[in-house]
């Protein structure tokens, strides 16, 4: 049974009540204080202090100070008035039990309200945080879109400037050709005049010799005719012999049939050209060449202008979709821009076109496997990425960079290395 504490003192004003409860050895850690508007309890085993207040108080603003073996309560009255007594007089056990239960219910309801208020405030904070994050993300997205648009405009301007330079250079070459042709025509005209003058001179000389007789005249004119007209060139034929293509491998290991098939496919790819594209109307002849566009894309990639390089490769692919290096180079651009799924698609398309597998296209096939494996790993598909790296090592087993990367992927799969 707890020991009821009845030795306490109290004082009051019209607005507050001050209660001093002596408790030997009391401390903040072990004392349990419970206070409502009509009920006050302190539980400090084995001591128990319980008080049923005469009138209601403001329990939220009331305070308790614990220290020096004493608890001092400062209770603020709801109504400013002097109390006759501190506790309710004539309270039986049933009444005190009702006051306890009511106080507990009030405390529970107040705690529930406080919890709901905190939850509502937390939801509002989360909502506000989410809106702020969405706003920041939208600003970042807009900034990225603006950067892309500015980059596209800059690349377009550079392309226009390059086209203008090409046009001026072409005009200058055409002017030089016309000037040279004009000079040649002028020289030919001068030669004609000289020949005409020479012919007239010979004719006048022949008339002066007309008295020498008809036979001599005919012979003379035949000689003049032969001198003025050049003899026709002799007919001949040119023989062309081609050096046979020799393969360095032994006959038992030869891939002549596969290499011939590869060369045949490349020749067909070079001949396949789609010129029915509206964008080609404003381009010059050399700009309609997929090889030229590929070199242009390579130059843009080397300068870090990956979006413009992709545009060049896209137009080249629309002109000729059978050249594997176009897809391979575009995959490298997509890797730089973190377009990982597109990088996988382009690498797979390049591998599809790089058939049959021969020594000529081994380096391109190795690059395609490495780029597709890199994209898989960045998507955390490490098993698929390792398969591509192992395929690249089968093509080039001595490549130490690919060996090291493959070993890192194996360690990640086995759990011995943290993911990057």
- The tally of beta strands, per DSSP, is 8
Cα separation of the termini: 64 Å
Radius of gyration: 51 Å
Helix content bin: 55-70%
Strand content: 5-15%
Strand order in the largest sheet: 1-6-5-4
- Principal-axes geometry comes out as elongated
Quickly give the structural class: alpha+beta
Number of helices: 10
**Order of SSEs:** EEEEEEEEHHHHHHHHHH
User: How would a crystallographer describe the biggest sheet?
Assistant: 4 strands, mixed
Q: What number is the mean pLDDT?
A: 82
Q: Low-confidence parts, pLDDT < 50 over ≥5 residues?
A: 210-221
What does this structure look like?
- Helix 1 packs antiparallel against helix 2.
- 59% of the residues lie in helices and 11% in strands.
- A hairpin with a 2-residue loop joins strand 5 and strand 6 (47-52).
- The strands form two sheets. A four-stranded mixed sheet has the order 1-6-5-4, covered by helices on one side. A four-stranded antiparallel sheet has the order 2-3-8-7, with no helix packed on it.
- It has helices at 93-208, 214-228, 256-271, 290-302, 306-319, 324-336, 340-353, 362-378, 382-395, 400-414; strands at 3-4, 9-12, 16-22, 32-35, 39-44, 47-52, 57-67, 70-77.
- It has 420 residues and is α+β, with helices and mostly antiparallel strands.
- The protein has ten helices and eight strands.
Give the arrangement of secondary structure elements.
Elements: E1 3-4, E2 9-12, E3 16-22, E4 32-35, E5 39-44, E6 47-52, E7 57-67, E8 70-77, H1 93-208, H2 214-228, H3 256-271, H4 290-302, H5 306-319, H6 324-336, H7 340-353, H8 362-378, H9 382-395, H10 400-414
Parallel strand pairs: 1-6
Antiparallel strand pairs: 2-3, 3-8, 4-5, 5-6, 7-8
